[in-house]
């Protein structure tokens, strides 16, 4: 998680999640921000699922990245397709909600794709895999303590 791309992917995913929370809240209170919510119940469930997935994405879990991409593509994909078809078939243009849907859906799918690809090509995940044959030596705190105790007994006093 030390690379700039990893930090940015999680930051954009978090900011988009906050944006969706604000949209869900304004939809529940009856206010209109210009971005329509397709299904309020699914949106709320998606918010909780994505919050859990963001924790696993922070930990660089590949399965969480795949699920995150599939969930957002499954939710925003049909919205995006329908909005693009509406714009393509409209003679005089479409309303502002259609263009807002295109923008929000594209950003949602792009953020999920960026997070998935970032986890997929992460150098630290590939360069430092868990190896049970050597981790007992390099990650063993008891062995380090034993060496430290042995080294501390060699202190000589000078008067």
In total, how many domains does the architecture comprise?
1
Rg:
24 Å
Alpha-beta classification: mainly alpha
Tally of individual helices: 7
Biggest β-sheet description = none
Mean pLDDT: 82
Order of helices and strands: HHHHHHH
Uncertain parts: none
| Percent of sequence in beta strands | under 5%
Helix percent band: over 70%
Straight-line N-to-C gap: 51 Å
The counted number of beta strands is 0
What is the molecular shape?
elongated
Structural notes for this entry:
- With 159 residues, the chain is an all-alpha fold.
- The protein contains seven helices and no strands.
- It has helices at 4-29, 40-58, 62-89, 96-120, 123-127, 132-138, 141-152.
- It starts with a helix and ends in a 7-residue tail after the last helix.
- 16% of the residues are buried.
Throw out a few tags for this protein.
mainly alpha, 159 residues
Q: Briefly, what is this?
A:
By secondary structure, the chain is mainly α. The chain has seven helices and no strands.
Layout of secondary structure:
Blueprint: H1 4-29, H2 40-58, H3 62-89, H4 96-120, H5 123-127, H6 132-138, H7 141-152
Helix pairs in contact: 1-2, 1-4, 2-3, 3-4
